[in-house]
């Protein structure tokens, strides 16, 4: 990764951790260089990149200001366009699942190598939240807890880029999880299978087995894809049959 790209990531994190708000002015270049540990030229490249993405705006003689929060940028540039595509054609949700397999296989692999006891407890807490809200019949909160479970695994990877990508697409992840849960959790036997898969992921991370963790996460997502496809096909078959009966 180029130094300027690392500076972009570090600057985004600094903005979030500093709780900056839209309209706030960034610190002076010298101070930012010290905080980020980069040269002035790399910092300027980073600012230029974020300016081109409409996150920052530079005012001649007045400095650089935050124009859009990082979370808002990902919402407008990533989540919203993809959500609209999925609304128009539900088949696009399988593209999201494919991307999740690629991304989350990596986060689980690294989490198994790097997770601290606190990370593992956080993952377990998220799992407990899933079962809690599921038992209450609160599908919306259960879906959010499910997305948090996958985000907690990414955070346990301690890879800044993976964490930021997962946080950036969290709303899309939650939307995708909710779609899958709406179909797959409709029958009790699938409910038990999915919870067992979550436990297998936790177990692999606790055992420090990166390959088992990767396989467990990817297998879990692939299972959801297969089940949703099967349910979609059955629903389409019933619709065709009902139209035939009306002829």
Describe this structure in a few short sentences.
The protein is mainly α and 247 residues long. It is 79% helix and 3% strand. Strand 1 (56-59) and strand 2 form a beta hairpin.
Structural account:
It is a single chain. By secondary structure, the protein is mainly alpha-helical. It folds into 2 domains: about 5-70, Orthogonal Bundle (Arc Repressor Mutant, subunit A); about 70-245, GntR ligand-binding domain-like (Four Helix Bundle (Hemerythrin (Met), subunit A), Up-down Bundle), CATH 1.20.120.530. The protein contains 11 helices and 2 strands, in the order H-H-H-E-E-H-H-H-H-H-H-H-H. It has helices at about 5-15, 30-35, 40-50, 70-90, 95-115, 115-135, 140-155, 160-170, 170-185, 190-205, 210-245; strands at about 55-60, 65. It has a two-stranded antiparallel ribbon with strand order 1-2. A hairpin with a 3-residue loop joins strand 1 (about 55-60) and strand 2. Helix 1 crosses helix 3 and helix 10 (about 190-205) packs antiparallel against helix 11 (about 210-245). The protein is globular, with a radius of gyration of 21 Å. The model has no long low-confidence stretch (mean pLDDT about 85).
